[in-house]
Amino acid sequence: EPEVTQTPSHQVTQMGQEVILRCVPISNHLYFYWYRQILGQKVEFLVSFYNNEISEKSEIFDDQFSVERPDGSNFTLKIRSTKLEDSAMYFCASSEEHPYSNQPQHFGDGTRLSIL
Amino acid sequence: GQNIDQPTEMTATEGAIVQINCTYQTSGFNGLFWYQQHAGEAPTFLSYNVLDGLEEKGRFSSFLSRSKGYSYLLLKELQMKDSASYLCAVRDASGGSYIPTFGRGTSLIVHP
Question: Distance, in angstroms, between A59 CA and closest chain B CA?
C-alpha cells in the first residue's frame, strides 16, 4: 500500500538554526499538509498546500515557517530560526481529494525535531 | 473554533467492548473523523461520519449525533494491539476552513 514517507526520522538542531523537514507524499495525491504534535499534546494543523501554493494555514504557521514543493515528489517544511518551543513531532500528510471530501488524510511516520 | 472533548484515558480487558466518546461544539459541522495513533507513530484513519447514525467497519464502529454534538467509537473483541490513542477530529466549515481539528485523544490501555 502506498505511504507517505518522511526524512529524517529524528532531527537534533541548535536553537536559532534553520531546519528542513522532508516528505514524499503518496504519488497520486494532490493535497499536502503539515501538522505538529508537541509531546503529550494534540495534533495541530500547520499548513495545507495545493497546486503549488498554500491553501490554508494556522496561527502557528508564522513567518518562521515556509513550505515548498521543489520537484514533482518532495514536499518540505522549513523553519528559519528554530526556538526551543519548536521541539515536536512533525507529521506530513497527503490526500487524494479536496479536504472537504470524506477522503482521509494519510500521515507519514513523522520527524521528531529536538531543539537544544 | 471547535471545542472537542474526549476522556483522557480508558482501560479495558482483552476480548471486551469499549466505547470512546467525543463531544464537540461547532457552528458549521461538516464531518467527524476517528484516527488511531500508536505511541510514536502516525495517526491512521479509522472512520468518517457526516450523517447521523452508525458506521460499522469490522471490529470498529463509529456513531454520530449532530444534534447532540456527540460521537463515539466502539471497539469490539478488544486485542492487546488496540492499546493506542484514539483521536477524534472535527471539521467545522463555518469559517471557510476544510481542515479537521483534532481533540487531545483518548489513551486506551488493553490488559489481559
Answer: 12
B105 touches chain A (CB under 8 A): yes
Q: Does a cis peptide bond (omega within 30 degrees of 0) precede residue A8?
A: yes
Q: In this complex, do B31 and A106 lie within 8 Å of one another by their Cβ atoms? A: no
Q: Write down the number of H helices and E strands in chain A.
A: 0, 11
- Nearest residue of A to residue B95 by CA position? A56
Least confident residue range of A45-49, A69-73, B77-81, B85-89: A69-73
pLDDT in tens, A47-79: 999 989 999 999 999 999 999 998 878 999 999
Nearest CA in chain B to A49: B99
Instruction: Judge whether residue B25 has pLDDT over 60.
Output: yes
Report the candidate in A65, A57, A74 with the shortest Cα–Cα distance to residue A113: A65
pLDDT in tens, B52-70: 999 998 999 999 999 999 9
Contact across the interface for A48 and B99, Cβ inside 8 Å: yes
- CA distances A22 to A29, B4, B73, Å, are 16, 30, 33
Rounded to whole angstroms, the Cα distance separating B86 from B66 reads 20
Q: What's the pLDDT band for A99 if we cut at 50, 70, 90? A: low
Give Cα B24 distance to the centre of its chain: 11
Pick from A49, A52, A27, A37: nearest CA to A91: A37
